[in-house]
Amino acid sequence: MISLPALGLFAGFAVVASFTPGPAVMLAVNNAMHFGWRRAFWSSLGNISGLLTLSVLSALGINALLQGSATAFTLLKTVGALYLIWLGVQQWRRAGSMRRAEGAPQGIPLDDANPDTGLASPGPASAQARPRVLYRRGLTVALTNPKAIAFIAALFPQFLRPDHAALPQYAVLTLTFMTMSLLALSSYAALAVLARRRLRRCFEAGWPQRASAGVFCAFGIAMLRLHRN
């Protein structure tokens, strides 16, 4: 089994990687701004489910396939990039559309009036805030990032002991990474909700949402420029 010092070192790497802003962080912030912390949690669950899947794929040697096949790598990165750009466009279109919930007292931020959903308005926004929709988006963002597979494939073997069974060690590392990622995404989502409450007028004008939309598109464009190592 993995030694405690090695596990502690791995946890440190996982914390740094998880708290470094990336597409998953921006998705958590975006969902928190629009729908509240509790609904944003579903996209975070989708993301860590994606990490679990990537860990399994890495153990099966999928990273070697991506590194060996230019077609597979290009296809995956293109799908991931287009998905991030699509999220950015959707975010931009919804910017400034957040309104007080029907019947909410004047002067009270929406998240205070309805902390469970944080919905901006009934109708289309309600469909976007469904748990399965948010979960699916988090899962898709994780699974369409070839760098995530490469990161897991490069990091995990450094902490595996060859004289012990690989499967239990992979399970411990994966669980640790998922826990740190969930902690990071939940923290960012909570900060986004707090910022929205303090800067209600700015958020209602849509400027923070437009800024995050630009970041999504930038991540997508950057992913298109990825090359195999």
Structural overview:
The protein is mostly helical. The protein is 76% helix and 0% strand. The chain has one domain. It has 12 helices and no strands. Helix 1 runs parallel beside helix 10 and helix 2 packs across helix 10. The chain is globular. The two termini are 31 Å apart. About 11% of the residues have low confidence.
Key features?
76% helix, 229 residues, 12 helices, mainly alpha
Give a summary of the structure in a few sentences.
The chain has 229 residues and is mainly α. It has helices spanning 4-19, 23-35, 37-59, 62-68, 70-94, 110-113, 124-128, 131-143, 146-155, 166-198, 200-205, 207-224. Residues 99-124 have low confidence and may be disordered.
Cα-based radius of gyration, to the nearest Å:
19 Å
Poorly predicted parts: 99-124
Number of strands: 0
* Cα-to-Cα separation, first versus last residue: 31 Å
Shape: globular
Question: Could you tell me the mean pLDDT?
Answer: 76
Put simply, the count of helices is: 12
* SSE arrangement, N to C: HHHHHHHHHHHH
The major sheet is characterized as: none
- What percent strand? under 5%
Can you tell me the number of structural domains? 1
- Helix content bin: over 70%
Structural class: mainly alpha
